[in-house]
């Protein structure tokens, strides 16, 4: 890589971690216009920044509010990066997996889901975000339609978490259970319960979802 | 010690005293409707039915507190224009519709008199009926919303997070208005409730940082609690969720020298490294973690940190223990809670939050039975 581009990397990482959207987009545009590849920016700035943000959350320096703001900054810089990626040769190689993401039926909470989406996208996954209050049937139709690897489900409220089970059961009913991995998370869920109802993985937060999703598509470790 | 009534027992604990035995609450709040064959959708507008259900649940399970309301987190926001959304059995606020889309909308907020707003009036009447029927011997509490969570329900959480960073003065001005109005509603329970529990789910550290909590949650909640105490009721602060990092502030909002309590899930030491660190710092390296019950142990640290200033309530996991567990697991958890926090009084054993309506009756019964068995002060 051209040495002059490297100077952007540290600055971009810092602005992402400090959720300075304006500066981050400016740096991204500059780097791309001066010849940086989208892949270079993802691997050298976006992914390391995501990791730092995750660590700050883990150690209690950052909280959900910071994750939301970091997520918005990530989303803003991913727009030009993804556009650029589309023009680059070998785009397919970058897709490490396709995920259909939704908050389950009856639940309209979306902060956690949105953060998970941004972290997954920032880590190279293609994410079809179906939004909130999504019935099992529609989620599965979409997963079949886009040939997803993973169905990722979010559920905040304990009164609606039976609808996570609906997705597992509906997949079994349609004979499709083996076609998709199921990842679940959200306030009312836990690892033990996720295992009991037949999900493949459970994650506590955005960084955890990335780790879980990577291991589900054989990119773990 | 002579046997106390439930009310005496709860009042003593809320004043950080040692009653005859550890008071217990099932928090079968939404679930109480099932006890009279009703559902939230069919009874929410009927204060008589709501009160009847709460009394039936109290009689069936035998605990010490009845709680008025079911949608406590949302009533103030609904009165100010937020839309209701039925999430299965829970009447929550539909945050897809935002009452405050721009700062100009703050000037157009409506503040109906609590007695004139249908939902507020029903909760006030429900509390009044509970007080008339059982308030001489059972403690009556009402659930309401903290000003910060109400603001989030009106603005949308993400917009609030952004505004706290970019336009803090505007957020303060909004919180001021909401607090003024909340106080009108909360003090309307004077003579109808012994205690007012302020639910503030967005204020926990799962959503809001301690720095933001100090600026945007604490001052407004403290003003609210002060008004509640001056109206002769006891404030209970419920920053629903993880309190690691905000515990001192959560206790500080209770007016100095007044009775009051904190109640939350406090933190999940299995998934939250920060909670585990806090626990080890306060209790020591020797803490034994039970993978099936990652909540209870936090009580030990919470009691040690703030038990000299406020009554501590909790901390049975409403999901992994109350909903998913067996009566034996509930019993073991209650015993653990009592071992951790009962010493010297100032403790009420209860789930960390409202319970799921599917929670088995046997588990509520096991909770109360175990509290009576293990909780006697000698």
What does this structure look like?
The complex is a heterodimer of chains A (221) and B (378). Chain A contains 10 helices and 5 strands. With 221 residues, chain A is of the alpha/beta class. Chain A has 2 domains: 3-93, Methionine synthase domain (Methyltransferase, Methionine Synthase (B12-binding Domains), Chain A, domain 1, Orthogonal Bundle); 95-216, Rossmann fold (3-Layer(aba) Sandwich). The radius of gyration of chain B is 19 Å and the shape is globular. The model of chain B has no long low-confidence stretch (mean pLDDT 94). Chain B has a single domain, classed as Alpha-Beta Barrel (TIM Barrel), CATH 3.20.20.210. Chain B has helices at residues 6-14, 40-43, 47-61, 75-79, 104-107, 118-134, 147-155, 157-166, 168-187, 210-230, 247-252, 273-283, 297-306, 318-323, 327-341, 361-374; strands at 65-68, 84-87, 90-93, 139-145, 195-199, 234-238, 261-263, 311-316, 347-351. The relative contact order of chain B is 0.14. Chain B contains 16 helices and 9 strands. In chain B, the strands form 2 sheets. In chain B, strands 1-4-5-6-7-8-9 form a 7-stranded parallel sheet. Chains A and B meet through helix 4 of A and helix 8, helix 12 and helix 14 of B.
